[in-house]
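Researcher: I'm preparing a figure for a lab meeting and need a structural model of a single chain. I don't have an experimental structure, so a prediction will have to do for now. The sequence is pasted below. Please return the structure as tokens so I can convert it later.
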Amino acid sequence: MISYKYKSPNYNNRVKNSKIEFIIIHYTGVDMQFHKVINWFLDERSRVSCHFLIDKSGEIYNLVDVSKRAWHAGKSFWNNCVDINSNSIGIELHNAGNEDFTSHQLKSLVKLIKKLMQDNAIQSWNILGHSDVSIGRKIDPGIKFPWHHLAKEKIGFFSNLSQENFDMDNSDNNSPQTIKEIQSKLMRIGYDVNKSGVFDMQTVEGLKAFQRHWRPVKVSGMLDVSTKQILTEVHKKLSEYRAAN
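Model: Understood. Here is the structure written out token by token.
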């Protein structure tokens, strides 16, 4: 059940000819009562909004019509798309950022995502976190968000390697060519990095964003053996998926 009780004034029209391709998952990231969170999204001075907000009981609130451009992603990028707000639906989960998501929230989230995917022909691989599309700027929905739970519901993909006990402190000595290959894989997945062959801060932030999604047990930005193996698997699976669709 979706409640239409509240409506945010913080939206505008999507860019002409834009297509809804992505669903971006956020957490609210503040330790405050739900009514205060709602009031923040309803306050035009906040300049932020989302299409849907899910409280800890699993109640879903539609704050901005899906046909409109909610202001949830800010400066962001994914797979050459630079106006994520015009091409996405934003879902916020009431969560301070340092706590587990409730089973009620996750159940409602899965149902909502599946409906939105069906209604808007959104591909499963395009269910992303704010941290994926805003590397170095945002970290939500955070390391406690259970991407593996969504994958079990056939929403996206989660590597089995992510659950294995690798020596994550074992950082390889990486040549410029190896770094270029890693950067190329991150770029092809969708991350905002450059193929420079230099292990620069943008690459570090790209790796951190990747780890938050696919190796949340340790987010270091280091190019260790575990990260390389998971990155290779995710890149391979995504390439196969895109080729088939």
